[in-house]
Structures are given as structure tokens and as C-alpha cells.
């Protein structure tokens, strides 16, 4: 019979304690489209215009904030400053996401047009 070392048992116990002490996940603010949309707000605005027929999943600084329907648009209030916007094709697996930094200014609307090319 193989002996289990003290360090192994201690590591397992610490891992279990960490899992038990983690706060419950709040709804909203997840990084997955399976979670609720994160609530973002600010004095700037971001308008996304989807020029394709495919629905797209939108992330703002790594947080899932919602979808834009095909041939549709959607606007969010966002904080000013430099932020990363990621747009992922929600209808096609293994498609490349588009990710880019944008500068948002108080009182201005930053408009982002996007289209998924046919392959």
C-alpha cells in the first residue's frame, strides 16, 4: 500500500477549504455567454452595428455584456477611457473572434461596425 504524504493531504484539504470559502457567484458579470449580461455604465456610449446576418456575442474588458442580433444594432453606456471590446460570432463554432482596444470619451458615442465574411 502506497503512503500518502503529509504535503499531499494538506494540499487537498487547502483546496477543498478554498472552494468552500469562495463567495457564491453573483448573476451578471461573467465571462461566458451562459452567464447573465454584466451591467456596465458610464458617461460614454458604444454603438455596435452588426452588418451580417449572424448574431454576435459581445465582451467588454473580458466581461460578457450581451448579444447583437444579425443585421441589428445595440448601444451601451460605457465608462470613458481605453477598453477592450471582443466580438465573437455566436452562430459559428471555431470562428475567430475580433478583439480590439477602443478609446471612449465622455459625452461621445463610439460606433463600431462589424461583418462576418462568408468562408
Task: Provide a brief overview of the structure.
This protein is mostly beta strands and 119 residues long. The protein has one helix spanning 6-21; strands at 44-50, 56-60, 63-68, 73-78, 81-89, 98-104, 109-114. It has a four-stranded antiparallel beta sheet, with no helix packed on it. The protein has a three-stranded mixed beta sheet with strand order 4-1-7, with no helix packed on it.
Could you outline the blueprint of secondary structure elements for this entry?
Layout: H1 6-21, E1 44-50, E2 56-60, E3 63-68, E4 73-78, E5 81-89, E6 98-104, E7 109-114
Parallel strand pairs: 1-7
Antiparallel strand pairs: 1-4, 2-3, 2-5, 5-6
Number of helices: 1
Overall structural class, as computed from helix and strand content, comes to: mainly beta
* Strand arrangement, major sheet: 3-2-5-6
| Strand residue percentage | 35-45%
Instruction: Write down the domain tally.
Output: 1
Q: Summarize model confidence as the mean pLDDT.
A: 80
Helix content: 10-25%
Fourth CATH level, the homologous superfamily: Immunoglobulins
* Number of distinct beta strands: 7
CATH architecture verdict? Sandwich
First-residue to last-residue Cα separation: 58 Å
Amino acid at each position: 500500500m502506497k503512503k500518502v504524504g503529509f504535503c499531499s493531504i494538506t494540499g487537498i484539504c487547502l483546496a477543498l477549504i478554498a472552494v468552500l470559502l469562495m463567495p457564491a457567484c453573483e448573476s451578471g458579470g461573467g465571462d461566458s455567454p451562459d452567464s447573465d449580461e454584466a451591467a456596465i455604465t458610464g458617461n460614454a456610449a458604444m454603438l455596435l452595428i452588426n452588418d451580417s446576418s449572424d448574431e454576435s456575442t459581445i465582451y467588454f474588458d473580458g466581461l460578457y455584456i450581451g448579444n447583437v442580433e444579425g443585421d441589428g444594432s445595440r448601444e451601451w453606456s460605457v465608462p470613458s477611457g481605453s477598453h477592450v471590446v471582443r466580438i465573437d460570432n455566436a452562430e459559428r463554432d471555431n470562428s475567430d473572434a475580433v478583439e480590439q482596444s477602443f478609446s471612449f470619451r465622455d459625452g461621445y458615442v463610439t460606433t463600431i461596425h462589424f461583418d462576418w465574411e462568408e468562408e
